[in-house]
Amino acid sequence: MFNLSSSPEAAASHIAAVDLGSNSFHMIVARWDNGQLTLLDRLREPVRLGFGLQADGSLSRDASERALACLERFGECLRAYPSRSVRIVGTKTLRSINDAGEFIAAAEARLGHPVEIISGDEEARLIYLGVAQAIAPTQGNRIVMDIGGGSTEVILGEGMTPRLKESLNMGCVAITKQFFSDGKVSEKAVTKALIACLQELQPVKDEFIERGWQQVLGASGSIKAVAKVCEANAWSDGIITAASLDKIIARYLDQGKLDLDMPGLSDDRKPVFLGGAIVLRALFEALQLKEMIAADWALREGLLFDQKGRLENHDIRQASVDALAQRFHVNMEKAAAVEQTALHLLAQVASAWQLTARDANKLLGWAARLYQVGLDIAHNDYHKHSAYIVQNVDLAGCSRAEQSQLAALVLAHRKRFPAKNFPLDNNDLVHLAILLRLAAIFHRGRIKDGLPEIALQVEHKKIHLLLPQTWLQQHPLTQADLETEQRHLGDIGYRLEIAGH
């Protein structure tokens, strides 16, 4: 989430990433030197969060307590780092909880840093980024698969760029919970589980097959565990095939239970290993795979590289915003003018309103570029259409919370302040909304002679706007809009004073 409040943060040479998955929680810490990441520490705990997801969408007390105890341990390491150097994301199970707010607040208190819930599309992008950094690309397309606890991501890409991404509702915890909750393994249950996975793949498999690929890579715990079992049983040198997966499933059928000892299989992977193997077998069948190589890096390493890019101003979110603006035919000349004015106003009041330059500039600038996207649908109430698009479209690099902040600004840029649909308790976001509203007013129409020098001063909820008196007289529409804005801001307790000189 965007950190808008200014606070002194020490320079950091270390970065950390935490993946709150449905099966395991992972933490990884790294240092970068001369453009290279050096991994310093890894922690993994099999929290099994997905097993605690109830039918009503709530999280069981046991699962919540296990998770928070783990995060307390992670927090001992992470609290020493500045927030800009730490990225913590939640995936499928946290996406599925009806109201994750209470759990997220408790998690953040233990970690000392914000927690983001990311979409399946964003999860897939980060997985591909991590794998692409670990294994040098070959010529042509590569397909990357990651079997998590609650979801499976399938990504087709070329080089370092993902081209087609899907997040599917099947994972090692989810399949185990649905078909093997009693710990018994039967041919009937295995068949049902395999069919359920094939049904999940049915709507998406053809597009992947049509595009084709030259390399097949797998990532994360389930796939790496299968590769280790294949090697330990001398079925291959770690390369996964459909035949080796059939041998794994056959062993479970022979014994009839989940609690099965197998060479190469760790104790903490046992409870969910069959579920992951069945998902992988379905992937092989549906996508007609011949063999797969397991990659060492995945989501958390992707997080590290993504965070490194943000710190070095190579932010994928900027490209996502620009692509969305282009997709909905935004008038970029006007958007750029509004952005320039909004950032000019921000520079004058950032200190008084205690707004941090880095994130506030980005969020305000991106809102200025996107507030017009709804015009492609209809002019009437276009700000509502714009907010809906920004909230619900897949914006690569953005978490749900970041998109919500961006959508709130877009919604609030005109007319009455949307008090019912805006977090008015977030003073920093309210302040950015006010700046965007003022910038939009100054660019409502085309002003041929350009804008005058605009001076803005603030003191808590008092806003003083100073403009040349002659310019105000020559632009009666802008003056009328500013007078209307006085009433709108008054509705939320702010006082806008307009003075000429």
What would you note in describing this structure?
The strands form three sheets. The chain has a six-stranded mixed sheet, sandwiched between helices. It starts with 13 loop residues before the first strand and ends with a strand. Helix 4 (120-134) packs across helix 10 (299-311) and helix 12 (332-349) crosses helix 16 (427-442). It is built from 18 helices and 14 strands. 49% of the residues lie in helices and 17% in strands. It is elongated, with a radius of gyration of 26 Å. With 501 residues, it is an alpha/beta fold. It has three domains: 14-118, Nucleotidyltransferase, domain 5 (2-Layer Sandwich); 121-298, Nucleotidyltransferase, domain 5 (2-Layer Sandwich); 315-500, Hypothetical protein af1432. Residues 28-307 form the Ppx/GppA phosphatase N-terminal domain. This is Exopolyphosphatase. Keywords: Hydrolase. Residues 316-486 form the Ppx/GppA phosphatase C-terminal domain. InterPro entries: ATPase_NBD, GppA/Ppx_hydrolase, Ppx_GppA_C, Ppx_GppA_N, PyroPPase_GppA_Ppx.
